[in-house]
Amino acid sequence: MTIPETETETEETHVTTGATVWLTGLPSAGKTTIAYELAGRLRAAGHLVEVLDGDEIREFISAGLGFSREDRHTNVQRIGFVAELLARNGVKALVPVIAPYADSREAVRKRHEENGTSYVEVHVATPVEVCSERDVKGLYARQAAGELTGLTGVDDPYEEPEAPDLRIASQHQTVQESAASVYALLSEKGLA
Ligand SMILES: Nc1ncnc2c1ncn2[C@@H]1O[C@H](COP(=O)(O)OS(=O)(=O)O)[C@@H](OP(=O)(O)O)[C@H]1O
Ligand SMILES: Nc1ncnc2c1ncn2[C@@H]1O[C@H](COP(=O)(O)OP(=O)(O)O)[C@@H](O)[C@H]1O
C-alpha cells in the first residue's frame, strides 16, 4: 500500500518522545497557565501535546468525586493512568493538577517507572499568600467567608514535594520565564 505523501510528512515532522510533566501546587499557583504556555512552545517545536486540565477531568473522568483525601487520591490515580497511556504513545502529557498527597504522586511516578515512561515532577511553589491574592476562581475568598471548607493549603493539607525535578517560584517570574524553565529541563533530559 502506498502511504500518501502528506501522511508521511506529518509523521516525520512530529517529535514522538513521550513524557508526563506533572505540575503540582496550590490553587492559583500558576499550574494551568504554565501548562498551556509550555504546550504552545512544545507544539511549535513539533511535539504531540495534551493538557489534562484538572477542571475538565473532574467534569468527565472524575465526575462525582469531591475533595476528600480518598477522592483526591482516586482523581490523581485516574489522571496518572491516562497521562501514562498518552506518554507511552509519544505524547507530552502536561498535568496541571494539585495532587496534594505525596503518596498519590509517588504511586503515579511508580506506575510510569514500571512502564519505562518518562515522568517529570514540577512543583509550582507559589506561596499561599500570593495564591490567595491571585485567587483566580475566588476560592480563597469563599473559604475566608466561610462558604467553603477543605481548601488545599488553607484548611486542607498540601504535602510539598521533597525532591521535585524543578521548583518554580512563579511570584518572581513571568509566565514565559516559568514555561521556559520547564522547557529547559525537558531539553536537559533529552525530552525536548
Ligand atoms: N476544596 C478545594 N480544594 C482545592 N481545590 C478545589 C477545592 N474546591 C474546588 N477546587 C478547584 O478544583 C480544581 C481541580 O482540583 P484538582 O483536581 O487539581 O485537585 S486534586 O488534585 O484532586 O486535589 C482546582 O483547580 P486549580 O485552582 O486550577 O488548582 C480548584 O480550583
Ligand atoms: N510566572 C507565572 N506562572 C504562572 N502564572 C502566573 C505567573 N505569574 C503570574 N501568574 C498568574 O497567576 C495566575 C495563575 O492561575 P492558574 O494558572 O489558573 O493557577 P492554577 O492552575 O495553579 O490554579 C494567572 O492569573 C497567571 O497569569
Automatic annotation (TrEMBL):
Q: Which reaction is the catalytic activity of this chain?
A: adenosine 5'-phosphosulfate + ATP = 3'-phosphoadenylyl sulfate + ADP + H(+)
Q: Specify the superkingdom.
A: Bacteria
Q: Give residues annotated as binding ATP.
A: 25-32
> Per the UniProt record, which EC number(s) apply here?
2.7.1.25
> What residue stretches are annotated with the APS kinase domain?
18-168
UniProt keywords (A-Z) are: ATP-binding, Kinase, Nucleotide-binding, Phosphoprotein, Transferase
Asked if Nucleus is a keyword of the record, the answer is: no
Supply the CDD domains for this chain.
APSK (cd02027)
Q: Which SUPFAM superfamilies match?
A: P-loop containing nucleoside triphosphate hydrolases (SSF52540)
Which pathway does the protein contribute to? Sulfur metabolism; hydrogen sulfide biosynthesis; sulfite from sulfate: step 2/3
Pfam families (UniProt xref): APS_kinase (PF01583)
Sorted alphabetically, the Gene Ontology cellular component annotations on this record are: cytoplasm
Q: Name one GO molecular function term.
A: sulfate adenylyltransferase (ATP) activity
Q: Which InterPro entries match?
A: APS, APS_kinase_dom, P-loop_NTPase, Sulf_AdTrans/APS_kinase
GO aspect biological process, one term: hydrogen sulfide biosynthetic process
Under PANTHER family, the record lists: SULFATE ADENYLYLTRANSFERASE (PTHR42700:SF1)
What function does the entry list? Answer: Catalyzes the synthesis of activated sulfate.
The record's similarity note reads:
Belongs to the APS kinase family.
What is the name of the protein in this document? Adenylyl-sulfate kinase
User: From which organism does this entry originate?
Assistant: Streptomyces shenzhenensis
